[in-house]
Amino acid sequence: MERVAVGLLVFLSGAAVMVLEIIGARFLAKDFGGAFYVWVSQIGVVLAALAAGYYAGGALADRAPRMGVLAGLLLPAGALTWVIPDFSGTVIEALILRHPADEPIPLVWQKLDPALGSVVVFGLPCFALATVSPFMIRVAAPCPGHVGRTSGRLIAASTLGSIAGVGVSGYILLDVMTVSGIFRLTGVLTGFLGAACWGLGRWGPASRRAREAAP
Amino acid sequence: MGAGVAPGPGGSAMRFGVRARRVAQVAGVAGVLFAGAAAALAAPWHVVFEATSPYHHIRVIDEDGMRVLSFDGSTETQMSLSDPLRGHFEYTEYFHLVWLWQSRLSNVLMIGLGGASVQRAYAHYYPEVTVETVELDPTVVQVARDYFHFKEGPKQKVRVEDGRVFVRRTTRAYDAIVIDAYTAGRYGSFIPYHLATREFFELARRRLGTNGVVAYNVIGSLRGYQADILGAVYRTLNAVFPRVYLFPARESDNVVLVATCASQPVTLRQLQRRADAIVRGRRVSLPGFRTRVAAFRSLPPSNAHRSPVLTDDYAPVDGLLSGRTLRALEAAPAAPASPRPRK
């Protein structure tokens, strides 16, 4: 039961990251155009956020292996994702219109502007979602002898979630929902994951083990 | 490359006498002809340029006296090798009809360069009109210059940039905006969604003068092939411009939509009278201009009323292209067919 819950948590956080990545690239195109650089920067920025999130998640898990910590990261990330349609327009507008009108945008900024926009809009939510996997590996591994198996299982679950996120957002969501609706939905999902972490920490068996494992 | 340029045996004839030389020359010419014929039989077409840009696998192919620009295996543009003003796709001639609403046309913005069919024709027939072209792919600009007689100058400017980014940042005003940024690939068409939404058309309208017009190429037909995308683009243009007219091409599945800032409706008779006046006044010398006017259609496509208005927030262009979105919308009328505008 607990295994399933942990697997589902990691699966859904992997899915949420990829919904943000795919829908995000589409979202940025209205401001930065259909340029190849939009895709390049979106993929690069999301991977950078993942790297930072994995690093921070792992370090945090050793220091304070309490599910409440994860809830404290995911709840604000969910709120931030919810408000993407409301704040991003102003930020991106400022980014684009800082270049003098009627003159070509220098090539270096044609390449970097979409990346800056992507960092501002999607950096923090993806960072928070990435902390889930290493954190859960620390919390869910029953003993050091099982770290290999546990981490393998959870990374696989997270990656399967990412695959599902790519497919669902690209093939289905864009046709049936508005882009802002998809961001709101992803915000709700992230907030739900935060609440689930909090619940697991409070009542789940993982919390007991985590308390035992705590230094 | 290299069909017909195989070196003949004539080169070794230099040390013989005049007569021998002549014989050798004849043999050489025959040899070249033979080699050329053989090459032509073996390969009736050949690739004169090939590159992979960030957007397309681009090839320029010469075949049967025609030069073809191919993106990802499907033909974008063609041009006669003997006369660059011939051989183009018929639908591109409908882009000349903006004259019907702008009898003093002087400034045109074109989004999408391709093989420069329209740019070449404008430069030839209306050398006094300034044409600014925005093209996303730098390789396409290079190919148009090198292989499709596209010449830049004070009246023909080109900018490598995304069309929407350009329209949003420019402060200039245009008499007409021609949008042909739609590509057909081996697996169907691709429409850049951000150049088909209400927000984009609003940006475009802000760059037009009082009688400004937008001419927009849709790959599709009134019924059948990609009719859903035609209905949606029509409805979206109509959400921004008071009048939208259709010019279905005769030779291909293309429909050029003309959207006007002027709210006064026009009839075919009126347009034909305008066309007569323009042609008589020698402002337009394009052969067949009046024939193109006859394609005029003022009725909306039959599916327009149930098509969604495309917005930045909801533009399921890929689903519309495959025909599944409209079916889904019909099955569930509660789906966001035309979400409320966000400003």
How is the secondary structure organized here?
The complex is a heterodimer of chains A (215) and B (343).
Chain A: H1 2-32, H2 36-63, H3 67-82, H4 84-97, H5 107-130, H6 132-140, H7 147-176, H8 179-203, H9 205-213
Chain B: H1 18-42, E1 45-52, E2 57-63, E3 66-71, E4 74-80, E5 107-111, H2 117-125, E6 130-135, H3 138-147, E7 156-160, H4 163-169, E8 174-179, E9 183-185, E10 188-190, H5 198-206, E11 208-219, H6 227-240, E12 243-248, E13 254-260, H7 268-280, H8 289-293, H9 317-322, H10 324-331
Parallel strand pairs in B: 5-6, 5-8, 6-7, 8-11
Antiparallel strand pairs in B: 1-2, 2-3, 3-4, 9-10, 11-13, 12-13
Helix pairs in contact in B: 5-6
Helical amount among residues of chain A, as a percent range?
over 70%
Order of helices and strands of chain A: HHHHHHHHH
Chain pair sharing the greatest interface:
A-B, 26 and 36 residues
The count of helical stretches of chain A stands at: 9
Helix content of chain B: 25-40%
- Shape assignment of chain B: globular
- Whole-number tally of structural domains of chain A: 1
Dominant shape of chain A: elongated
What is the CATH architecture descriptor of chain A?
Answer: Up-down Bundle
* SSE succession of chain B: HEEEEEHEHEHEEEHEHEEHHHH
Instruction: Tell me what portion of residues of chain B adopts beta-strand conformation.
Output: 15-25%
Total domain count of chain B: 3
Total count of strands of chain B: 13
Spatial separation of the terminal alpha carbons of chain A: 27 Å
Task: Please describe what this structure looks like.
The complex is a heterodimer of chains A (215) and B (343). Chain A is mainly α and 215 residues long. Chain A has one domain (2-213): Up-down Bundle (Growth Hormone, Chain: A). Helices cover 87% and strands 0% of the residues of chain A. Chain A has helices at residues 2-32, 36-63, 67-82, 84-97, 107-130, 132-140, 147-176, 179-203, 205-213. In chain A, helix 1 runs antiparallel to helix 8 (179-203) and helix 3 crosses helix 5 (107-130). Chain B contains 10 helices and 13 strands. Chain B is globular. In chain B, a hairpin with a 2-residue loop joins strand 3 and strand 4 (74-80). Chain B has 3 domains: 9-42; 45-80, no CATH class; 90-331, Vaccinia Virus protein VP39 (Rossmann fold), CATH 3.40.50.150. In chain B, the strands form 3 sheets. In chain B, strands 7-6-5-8-11-13-12 form a 7-stranded mixed sheet, sandwiched between helices. Chain B has a 4-stranded antiparallel sheet with strand order 1-2-3-4, with helices on one face. Chain B starts with 17 loop residues before the first helix and ends in a 12-residue tail after the last helix. Chain B is of the alpha/beta class and 343 residues long. Chain B has helices at 18-42, 117-125, 138-147, 163-169, 198-206, 227-240, 268-280, 289-293, 317-322, 324-331, and strands at residues 45-52, 57-63, 66-71, 74-80, 107-111, 130-135, 156-160, 174-179, 183-185, 188-190, 208-219, 243-248, 254-260. Classes of the chains: A mainly alpha (215), B alpha/beta (343). Chain A binds chain B through residues 26, 29-36, 85, 96-97, 99, 101-102, 104-105, 110, 174-181, and chain B through 54-55, 136, 159-165, 168-172, 192-195, 197, 199-200, 311-314, 316, 318-319, 324-325, 328, 335-336, 339, 342.
